[in-house]
Design goal:
Chain lengths: 110, 110
């Protein structure tokens, strides 16, 4: 998702996924790429942005048209396998917040 | 804000501030620290988390009890000076999203 992404009409929805990775890749990178690619093909997908620091702390925020779209992607069988692997192996801890985006605006320095 | 932060009763509010920094510090670090410190003292402040990658792309998410608390901090005179300086100097671009957190849950790998 481009930084200047507020081209969607509010309200839409955001999933804020804050996480602390365990050490070592252990197949995480490949699965993350695969899940992002699959996520982009889901109904109602609007965008995604990810940031991770060298400490292993990071956040992924995905944007969706409706809560139903979020539920649908959460219950996708391949995504569920990835979620299980995340709990077993890739994440020390995580926090999920489901949010309704009520207002959005951008600034660009020309 | 601790990663496992979902100790607040929903609904509460999140401000997702995604930004692309310009190059060089130019007083940014000091002002960011000062604003975070002031923000923590505001009415309705719940927490803050920040991630920035070496590319200069990053996100700060702050959490608040009410929309009124967010408006109040946005209009704080010292914060307004920082916002102006941000537009003039520190940010190539940014995007602000005001969100209502409707559901939140955590996972911790024991």
């Amino acid at each position: 998702m481009n930084l200047l992404s507020n081209r969607f009409e509010v309200p839409y929805y955001a999933v804020i996924f804050t996480s602390q990775r365990t050490t070592g890749d252990q197949g995480y990178g490949q699965m993350a790429d695969q899940m992002e690619s699959m996520g982009r093909d889901q109904a109602g997908f609007l965008g995604i942005e990810s940031y991770r620091e060298s400490s292993g702390a990071g956040v992924t925020i995905s944007y969706w048209k409706t809560l139903e779209d979020i539920r649908h992607w959460k219950s996708n069988p391949a995504h569920q396998i990835a979620q299980d692997k995340g709990k077993q192996t890739w994440y020390q801890s995580y926090s999920v917040k489901i949010c309704k985006v009520e207002r959005a605006y951008d600034f660009e320095n020309m």
